[in-house]
Amino acid sequence: MNRVGVSDVLRPPRVEPFADEGVDLFVPATYDVVWSVVVAVVVLLTLTAVVAIVVLVRRRAARPERVGTGTRESRLAEVDRLHATGALDDDERQAARTRILGTL
Q: N or C: which end of the chain has fewer CB within 10 A?
């Protein structure tokens, strides 16, 4: 006959470990692969976005300022300044002023 003592009753039952210990039964085996692919795609998209932003900023910085920007008065003043320094002759000054005033 098996005698059961008090210590046997209070002791928790012995649980045998699973043969595949460390494997979560509620998560499919492909989860790790899918998660790795998702993380890789996010990292690549982030790097692509950063490179694209850097390229766009550098291109914009290297682009010369558009000619003819500003108010009509500032453009006329620039033409007069160029004429005063000798960069434009009388005909070029008159043509530039006509072109600026023609954009009314």
A: N
Tokens (6 digits) for 40: 């890789």
Confirm whether pTM is higher than 0.85.
no
Q: What is the Rg, in whole angstroms, of the alpha carbon atoms belonging to the chain?
A: 40
Nearest to 77 by CA among 12, 85, 4, 50: 85
The domain segmentation of the chain, as residue ranges, is: 15-63, 67-104
Contacts (Cβ under 8 Å, ≥6 apart) of 104 = 72
Q: Is 26 or 33 the better-scoring residue by pLDDT?
A: 33
Cα separation, 82 vs 96, whole angstroms: 11
